[in-house]
Each structure stands twice: as structure tokens, then as C-alpha cells.
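Obj: model holo form, ligand = zinc ion.
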Amino acid sequence: MSHIHRACPICQSLTARPVYQNTMASIDGLDMSYRVARCDQCLLVFADHLPDSDDYEIYYQSLSKYDVGVIDTPLVSPAALPAVAMSMTERLRCDAAIALLRKHTTSNAAIVDLGCGSGMLLGAIRDAGWSRLKGVDPAPRAHAQALALYGLDCVQTGTLNQATTQHDFSATDVVCMMGVLEHLPRLESDLAQLVSALDVGTKILVEVPALECFSRKAHEPFGEFSLEHIQFFSATSLAALFATLGYQPLALSIVELPAGYCDSLMGIFVRAPDAMPAEQPAMVGSMANLLEDYLQNSEKMMTSAIARIAADTASNLVIYGAGSHTARLLPKLPAKELNRISAVVDGNPNLHGKRLGNFVIEAPPALAKYPAATIVVSSFRSQTSIAEMLRATRANAVLTLY
Ligand SMILES: [Zn+2]
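Output (holo C-alpha cells):
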């Protein structure tokens, strides 16, 4: 396992100041820990020590949460899914993207969604009247899911890199990358390659989590430093990234999302000679202070969560939830608490049998083996629904952390 030191993806500076060590329990042997730093030159916040790209590809192909589609939604029949599976958050994101498409292109436009997942945005775009659609996603099941969930037969499997070498982008009007740029270990080279494959007039629609809003509302401690996010954009740094590629924003604004979800930054970019400079979202405070607030608040929450576990007197514990919350919690737990953990359980079938740190992730029926254990709900966003489900079905004591 090698970790690489990365230059700033925008300005290539090698001098970045560390702000947080994001230590994660290993996932099936992959150590996805990284260090968060702020570039001294352009102030971009990004992971400057991170696993090498081969590990990311293994991770995305075998472990990514995006391969299971709608994680917290119960399974229903595919025919019923498009209507029910879109949460309020997803609806707001899709609506904001469609509003930008309406304003900056025609209904005859050819649209390619890179990192389309199971096709939710493409389905929404089709429902809004567009028909010349394509999608590409690294998840092996993306094609089958897009077909089953949205009746879309236009999704191919591939990384961004493969998409630009294998796909003909000529005559594409808009390339969408929703929730993609924050993931890319080779951000600069992948984007440069993509841009070189695009016609001069092709617009790029982008959505990323808004650093401006990390601490705007209640949040999971350090949750924005997820396993998969390795650069953290503000409106200023997103525009700066595109400027290095010769693009300017036609529009760039914050999309406010419901409690539990970080607000998005969404924009549409075009090659500079054609661009009218967009008004950028007003900054709420200095970027440095906003990040500092987020880190301090996260630290306080994490300390308090660990204290709640320490105060529980059960001789053994079962952790419910094997996502990045648990991956981040386990390395921070004192040995005394760690030694009381008998099992890690998760409802996501994609994770069963995989290892998280020293534990093999088990399916919920395994809870029956530990009748005296306190079940620790290791989730911020879903803690209420998980706790209610556990209390309704198990006699164990249930401990929530927030
Ligand atoms: Zn920089």
C-alpha cells in the first residue's frame, strides 16, 4: 500500500499546509486514509497525501456505495422505483441541473452524463423533455441499474479516463459531471483530457459539495472528508480550476439542500471566449474561518460521541453501520472501547463479508448472536431511522451517538 504526495490540483504548488489527518479503518485491506491540506498559493482545500489511483479504482469497482444505488431506501419493485426513490435532496439537485440546462441549451441538445451512477439525473432529464442522452459510470452495475430503475439503455461502464478515450464527444452540447470532481485522484489530467476531446462550444455542467456550507447546518463530524471526496471546492476555487482549462462560468450558484446534506455548488462552464462572467455566490465569511469552524465543531462532536460509548456499561458492543462514519470512528476509539466490540453489522448487502479494520462486516441477522450487547448506531444522518428499526425488532439496548 503506497500513499502518494499530491501537488495542488489547481496551481500545482507543492506547498500546502496540513489541516486534518483523515484516518480511516482499512476497507477490505485498502487503506483509504488521507491528509487534508490547504494550498498556500491558491487556498484550495484538498487531500495532499492519498492512496494511489490503482487503489481508488479497486475501491470504486468493488466497494463504492454508488454501486448499490439508493442506500437508505427500502427495496421496492423496479416499476415503482422512479416515482418513489427520488428523495427531496435528489429532486432539488436534479431540478437545479435541469433549470441550468433549460437556460443554457435547447431541448434538442445532446447531453452526456459522466459519473451517471444508476441514471437518476439522466432519467430526470429525459422526463423533462430531452432525448439525446448518454451516460458513463465506473460502477459495473450502472448499466443494469439504469435500465431496471429508469428504463434507460444509454449507460456504459467506464472511468472518466476511459470515457474520453473511447467515447466520441463531437457534437455533444453538454457534459454533466454531478458529484464527480470532488472524487478524482487525477483531477487535472482527467479534466485536461476530457476538455481536449470536447468541441469548442460544448458546455460543462458541474456540481460539487459547497465548502462555503460545510458548517452551515448540523453535520456528521468530519463527514465531508468521506472516503471518496479528496478535493473540497468553493465557488472561487471551482472557477479557478476551470479557468486553468480555459473555461469560465456562465452560471455558478449554491443549491440549498435539506438537513443532513451538504449544500451543493452548481455551475455551467464554457470556453472563455464565449463566456459572460457569471456572478459568483457571495462568501459568508472567510474560507479559512469556515473550514476552521467545521473542523472544531467536528472534533467536539466526535469527542462527545466517544464519551457516550465509554459511558455505556455493557460488556460487549455491536456497531451498526459499516460506512465511513464507522471507518472514521474505529481508529479514534480508545483500546478499552475497541476491545468491547463483538461485531460490525450493516444492512447493505454489498458490504457483507468484507473487512472493516479487524472486523468482518455481518448482515443484521447476526445481531441474534449478541443478545446482551449494546447496539451502537454508527451513523449521523440515519441514526433515528436505524435506532427505531432496531428498537422495534431487537431486545438489545440501542445507543445513538448524536
Ligand atoms: Zn493551489
